[in-house]
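User: Fold this; tokens only.

Assistant: Input:
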Amino acid sequence: MPYLKVICVGDAMIGADTFAAASEEILAASRVQCRQWLGSDKAELQRQRVLVERGGPGAVPVPGNVTDPGGDFDILLAHYAPVSAAMMDAFPKLQVIGIARGGVENVDLNAATERGILVFNVSGRNAHAVSDFAVGLMLAELRNIARSHQALHEGEWKKKFHSHPRQLEGKQVGIIGFGKIGTLVAQKLKGFEVKLVAYDPFATAEHFNSAAVQPLALLDLLSSSDIVTVHARLSEKTRALIGKEQLAAMKPGAILINTARAGLIDTLALIEALQTGQIAGAALDVFEDEPLPAASPLLKLDNVTLTSHLAGTTVVALERTPYLLCQNIQRFLAGRSEENLLNPQVAERLGDDHWRALLL
């Protein structure tokens, strides 16, 4: 029987007890310890997340209640807690890090690889949640749903808005990033009778063909689409992927949707494009500073729909993610799959026997 020792680091979104339940059920962990990062303060968690995404896992010190005492754990499971080199060193026998999200900005992947630690994530864990939300933002912005709601709360029966109401039918929707989320957006839009195009330099021709979506170069997509929705990963190469030049290429009547990462769009350039009417509108769920500052110019615009980083957060998505993560780890240890393994070179370097020993 396996004797896996697991340390579970929870936060305000996914508690340590949920990780513990998943590790006991899926990994048959024999020893599980729970520690909590930042308690239950979701606002503080959001602030710390932004710092980590900007500066890396070393930008935020992990409190002593997480790393002290360390221990001889085999596996560390976490959600948003920063897993820096220093944190890894607090657990010197660590062999696997599992992160219950698609992005792993909160893990020092190079440090893990140098130490021979495997890193797993959960790609597409909230793909349905985010794709639903993206389609909802399109409708909200096209039909002034949120603005009408706000006007009624202010006692106004409003019929005229900055943006004229439009319907999805007949529009071209351009999808930037055609992975799991982008593909689901395309599937969910087909009933609206729209034309679908996408930009993703990593997607195969077979994937575009099977989805019945036309691939386009980025500027071609921007210049021809009525709606542009962003679902790319944030990296140094994709930061400010949509800047002044790209916004200038968009149609004057176009709207821009972002449920991915704020850094994919040059915020100042977007604000200028919205202020001048260079594009008709935008709907944003992510921001460079979160919570959105009260002085943000975005709050003064009447051609933008704003939500508080809600797209990926549903009860189902959060509750099932630790189980999906543990399933990824278990499949690897059983020799069946390397899905969602982010540093396979470590597995190759140490060999199958090393990892199978964890189950003995």
